[in-house]
Amino acid sequence: MRLSESPDIVIMGDPFLFQQHKQVCVDDIPTDDFQHNLKILRKRQLEANGIGIAAPQIGWGARVLCLGISEETRSRYPTAVDIPLSFWINPTILETSKDTCWTWEGCLSVPGMRGWVERPSAVKIRGFNEQGEVIEADLSGFAARVMLHELDHLNGRLFTDQVDSPKLLLSNDAFQHQDIWPEGWPTENARKASPGGLSTER
């Protein structure tokens, strides 16, 4: 398929977000349509101030994602470390750490919400880049978090599926008033953590 120049972000509730998407044929990577779709994926990420985006979020049923925090995309996670812009095609998890961490996650496909989510602290990934070359990376901290969040999209999962209690899913409006939350609510560490900040305890 060839994406339009400005596809809409697919929003939670659309069944497309809950599908497991198929591997890309590596021979398709250099084709004009595929390269066009990569360009549109990155364009929509930057336009939406996203630090990551997966192909299904713009209606493209492919195992492709794009990560990266730039000055243009920093507004949603102002304290997070820089993550270089990169494409991952057919990403596969090779290893995950036993150690985990929590942070407040948001999602372009779940507008207006954040959730306090636990994930592995580090991950080793293999896939292909936009040239069709095999790439690997050892990611830790917030970069690992973003990768695992976007990988979930390729398997039909949203961050809301990872929240282990309804009280750990909040509106962005409520999050803006974190300073007046009751002591220890919804957890002691969740109360203190800023977007992009990690905690080793729930």
Describe the structure.
By secondary structure, the chain is an alpha+beta fold. It has one domain: Peptide Deformylase (Alpha-Beta Complex), CATH 3.90.45. The model has no long low-confidence stretch (mean pLDDT about 95).
Largest sheet: 5 strands, antiparallel
- The level of helicity is 10-25%
β-strand number: 8
**Alpha carbon gap, first and last residue:** 42 Å
Question: What is the CATH homologous superfamily assignment?
Answer: Peptide deformylase
Radius of gyration: 17 Å
What class do helices, strands and sheet pairing give? alpha+beta
List the SSEs and their pairings:
Elements: H1 32-47, E1 52-54, E2 64-69, E3 83-96, E4 100-105, E5 113-120, E6 122-128, E7 134-140, H2 141-154, E8 169-171, H3 172-175, H4 188-192
Antiparallel strand pairs: 1-2, 2-3, 3-6, 4-5, 5-8, 6-7
Q: Any descriptors?
A:
alpha+beta; Peptide Deformylase; 19% helix; 27% strand; 202 residues
Task: Write a concise synopsis of the structure shown.
19% of the residues lie in helices and 27% in strands. The radius of gyration is 17 Å and the shape is globular.
